[in-house]
Amino acid sequence: MRILVVEDDAQTAAYLLRGLTESGHVVDIASDGNSGLDMALEAIHDALIVDRRLPGLNGIELIKALRSRGQRVPILMLSAQASTAQKVEGLQAGCDDYLAKPYAFAEVLARLDALMRGRDQSNGPVRQLEVGELRLDCATRTAVRQGRVIALQHREALLLEKLMRHSGQVVTRDMLLDSAWDYAFDPNDNVIDKHIHRLRRKLDEGFDDSLIKTVPGVGYSFQVNTPQD
Hints:
The protein is of the alpha/beta class.
């Protein structure tokens, strides 16, 4: 997943960044409510972690602004303010879960997983995808093609997930970059092409046809061959 953390405390932000990155996620950090809102409105994140007390817009105001603009991304609010009334205020503002500080990082992960399972049941993003002969488990970063198990690197899995979610459509290089790298990454001209080359080689080993087609000058497309009668 690509996760946006909106947290003004540098130590807490670094703690979440390290834990989430080590857990296989792409993480962006915003240190105030205004920049957090701007980044969230780009609609490229699978989930948000928002601190309640922020400079500029506070967490409640940020969430209300997002929901008023139709953004349905799952949001986990973190706060030292943990009374029942304060939790109710956060939930009524539009956050999906509310976790009181101090917390264990394992609980943050568990809450995020629960939020994503909730979206799975509501036709939101799922953690397992199957398109044609290929199945991808996003959590374990494992693909299976006609019974052959394919272990993927972190960014390979993120790129494949993006392509499979847009099967049959053209996915631009910018879209792929957004899916697998954070804001701090300074891409070179062919970083996407190099990763797609390695991904394609893994997926196509032992097969005559390639599932990922190049769209010259634009990007790539995940294509499933239709069996002939």
